[in-house]
Design a protein that fits this description.
This protein has one helix and nine strands; from the N terminus they run αβββββββββ. The longest helix has 17 residues. It starts with a helix and ends with a strand. It has a single domain, classed as Porin (Beta Barrel), CATH 2.40.160.20. The radius of gyration is 23 Å and the shape is elongated. The protein is mainly beta. 8% of the residues lie in helices and 67% in strands. Strands 1, 2, 3, 4, 5, 6, 7, 8 and 9 form a nine-stranded antiparallel β-sheet that branches.
């Protein structure tokens, strides 16, 4: 009896694997991954308001997790689909090198972002495809500075910006079981600029900027097709 049960389980798994093809339909899933963010820091001094020549490159890394949902349509060897989602990223790019530790810092951060994407793919086997992802991200970057351009803990600068950004990517997706898809994906996000100003007006009001924000992410995801 035990051997019969094991044989039935094995045959069910084998049958499901044999029918594990990428197909038309709706899906829901989750992703997790790792991202690296860089930016160029520049600004004007709070003491004189004069622009500071040049910029300093800052960067850091962060884990991310996300939820996704979408619809895909398969015709022949081609795949076309749309997808929406939200990623929790908690990115923090912190600079403390140009001051005594504990006396100040510059921090650029984002807690997460919404995304909408078009995916176009080519199925080189019935259950595996390579795809291109063209996406738009919507999130809030904030910048706080108590380190640079004559800012300090008593005269900090802060600012934030919500903006739509372009994030193309590439990916590989395969059906590992009936209705269960596994993907690996890389995206490169062309981020916005964000500016921080001090609370003081007039002569003591300076600004700090984080420009050319770029985020590269690698993600692994699982999705269930209905």
């Amino acid at each position: 009896m035990k051997k019969l049960a094991l044989a039935l389980v094995a045959s069910t798994v084998a049958l499901s694997a044999a029918n594990a093809n990428i197909a038309t339909g709706f899906y829901l899933g989750a992703t997790t991954g790792f991202g690296a963010t860089t930016a160029k820091s520049s600004g004007a001094t709070a003491g004189t308001g004069a622009s500071v020549d040049g910029s300093t490159k800052i960067g850091d890394t962060a884990f991310n997790i996300g939820l996704i949902g979408g619809y895909g349509w398969v015709t022949g060897c081609m795949y076309y689909g749309g997808e929406i989602g939200y990623s929790f990223e908690n990115s923090k790019v912190t600079d403390t090198l140009r001051n005594t530790p504990g006396l100040g810092s510059q921090q650029l951060k984002r807690n997460g972002y919404f995304n909408a994407a078009f995916r176009g793919g080519y199925l080189f086997t019935p259950n595996t495809m390579f795809y291109v992802r063209l996406a738009a991200h919507w999130g809030k970057w904030s910048l706080n500075d108590s380190l640079n351009f004559d800012f300090n803990n008593a005269n900090p600068a802060s600012g934030s910006k919500n903006r739509l950004t372009f994030a193309p990517g590439l990916g590989l997706e395969t059906a590992i079981h009936k209705n269960v898809y596994l993907r690996v994906e890389y995206t490169y996000e062309f981020g916005s600029n964000v500016r921080a100003t001090s609370g003081n007006a007039g002569f003591n009001q300076g600004s700090a900027s984080a420009g050319s924000i770029r985020t590269q992410s690698g993600k692994v995801g699982l999705a269930y097709k209905f």
